[in-house]
Write a structure and sequence with these properties.
4-stranded antiparallel β-sheet; Arc Repressor Mutant, subunit A; alpha+beta; 4 strands
């Protein structure tokens, strides 16, 4: 893994946790929130960070930090398709 990709992965993980820290305990965020927080610019370049943001969320699930949800219910990160939300593990 290149240094840039690894750094970006760490930034996305940190952004997810920081965004959740700023919200109510049961609140959720969208992976796009983290992608926008990490993207350096005012354009829509954050969209290229969506898949990396979703992968960062999966790593945080594996670490026991967060849950990935759909329709308010936790889902298996390896099987989920479509829009997701991220919240702190309960």
């Amino acid at each position: 893994m290149s240094g840039t990709v690894q750094q970006q992965d760490q930034q996305l993980e940190a952004a997810i946790l920081e965004l959740l820290d700023g919200r109510a305990p049961a609140a959720t965020i969208c992976p796009s929130d983290a992608a926008r927080a990490v993207h350096d610019g005012d354009d829509d370049g954050w969209r290229a960070l969506m898949d990396p943001a979703r992968r960062a969320a999966r790593r945080l699930v594996a670490a026991g930090e967060v849950e990935i949800t759909q329709g308010g219910r936790p889902v298996d990160p390896d099987e989920v398709r479509g829009p997701i939300r991220i919240r702190r593990s309960r």
